[in-house]
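Thread: zinc ion complex, take 2
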Amino acid sequence: MDYTISRKALEGLCRILKEDRRENSSGRTSAIERKLAENGYISLIELTDKLGMEERRGGGVIEYILQDLISALGIPTLTLCYRPEQVGDEPYPFEGFSEIDVAHLLIQLEHLGLQVDPSSLVHKLADKLGSARILTESELAVIEYEHRRSSRKIVLQVEGHSAAVETESTSHTDSQGMHCTVISSDHVPVRLEIQGPKHEAPLETPIVECSICRLSYVQNNPADERRHSTLHQERMSTINPQPDPRVIALMPVKDGSLLVEPDSPLWMHDEVLKRARAFRLEFGYDRVQWDGSSDNAASPEWRGHLFVSDEGAIAGACGFYGEAASPPELHWIWLAPPYRRRGLLKAAWPSLTRSYGEFDLEWPIQDAMLEFVARHGTPRQIERHRKLHSS
Ligand SMILES: [Zn+2]
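Output below.
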């Protein structure tokens, strides 16, 4: 992470880090924690004062540069005041911090190599956060603390500095394994890089396409790799479907397909969705034509069918769409490769035309589908799609 900082603050920080760490006297951050426990907040003045007692290196310079560090690191400050003696009294505002933002500040200062220990405050706050789903930046820093401790790299650079004028660089590693590199220009520090002992250079993150499920994802990006793994499994179970107990429970299936309408169980809506995705992926369309899922039923304009094999596997699906005034059209149909050209669609077609009339197919239509209609469609379908195809 890169931050821009004032020249004065960078010089002060370098002075602190040049000195060896001092013996850790116990309970150092407890003074700040006590203040926070008392009021829920701490003023900038108290915080500066108490940090000055903890980090004494560099002749106590932390007290002079703290405010610059806080703004460089983007820690939010609050305007606070004491409760007036009587309502209506003039309040005395002062600058301060909430507990969570102090924790964030201490986490950042520890990463910068300063002698502070955020751990007990962080653990207390992480417990309070529980499983909250929306987090502020400071709350995120708290829940990621253990995971990222010692493994970050922070770069602080003086405002307006250009890399072209860098002249010398010195490095050292402190007793905690924090690796500091100071880059100076005319003997004045202009850039400081601090790397935790567990920091690893980031891996390359190329976009790759899985040759099996054909999904593109960012390699070495954990969230994207998890997303791929889920979709990969889903895709494999769609491409090579196995007998499904939920389907077997509904067998025998009349006319070879299960109708999926608004009040059908959600798992059926989800299974149609998986095939709608497979269709989109295989034929390169830009949108999925099915809005049902395991969370909600599809809109009333949609009707789905799940084609079922003799063994009770979901061999494929299709989606009909029709707004109230217009007859439904077949928008897409997808069969798993092992079930193509095996007569499943031919067996289901008469019942589909009974349900939807001599329906049209939405364009564009794959060649295999046109060929199918030419051989097995109703006379009107054959006529209509032959004409449209040759026009
Ligand atoms: Zn894959």
